[in-house]
């Protein structure tokens, strides 16, 4: 491929795991022939020469970082990560996939305590929420299995994603408040959005039409 061709490759930061399957399905429905053999791949860079595209398979939380630094032109990321990471990127489109919500969760018999502690993977989101509520809490950062925290006495509440509610039910926890709804978003690097505007805008329009048609 010529240098010119290389320059025109659209680099897309894709979240590995459960969002990828929904995102690649949406791309396919929008007319982009993404082979389904990549749904379970361990490959980190997927070349799609027919579309002059490349997928960078990223840990979801890192997608905005790749896009902010411009090593990916665009990316797909959950609103939860966007709110927490607060990176300098354009949010172009709500893809309407991977729907869930960010919630405050506790034991059914939760009562306010003098030194409340909240465990979460989202310390910025949690701190901002409790500040707005006028509640002073100590926020403890964890990296997964957040629901353990109230069960073993690390924190009296958690801030976490709820999708089906199964994790809460199986661990005897209840939702106290919903903070915001989450879906995946299409984001773009600010420079790429100017330099590759037509390609990015075309892709955006195709996805938007598919979402509007309710096909996904
Ligand atoms: C996420 C989230 C909840 C769970 C919610 O965890 O943190 O624990 O999914 O889904 P549900 O309402 O359908 O049960 P994830 O599976 O990403 O793993 P983690 O606990 O290691 O973060």
Automatic annotation (TrEMBL):
Record key words, sorted: Amino-acid biosynthesis, ATP-binding, Cytoplasm, Glycosyltransferase, Histidine biosynthesis, Nucleotide-binding, Transferase
Cellular compartments annotated: Cytoplasm
InterPro entries xref list: ATP_PRibTrfase_cat, ATP_PRibTrfase_HisG, ATP_PRibTrfase_HisG_short
Main location: cytoplasm
Pathway participation: Amino-acid biosynthesis; L-histidine biosynthesis; L-histidine from 5-phospho-alpha-D-ribose 1-diphosphate: step 1/9
Top-rank lineage group of the source organism: Bacteria
Catalytic activity, EC: 2.4.2.17
GO molecular-function term, one example from the UniProt record: ATP phosphoribosyltransferase activity
Quaternary structure, from the entry: Heteromultimer composed of HisG and HisZ subunits.
Notes concerning its domains: Lacks the C-terminal regulatory region which is replaced by HisZ.
Reported function: Catalyzes the condensation of ATP and 5-phosphoribose 1-diphosphate to form N'-(5'-phosphoribosyl)-ATP (PR-ATP). Has a crucial role in the pathway because the rate of histidine biosynthesis seems to be controlled primarily by regulation of HisG enzymatic activity.
Protein name as it appears in the record: ATP phosphoribosyltransferase
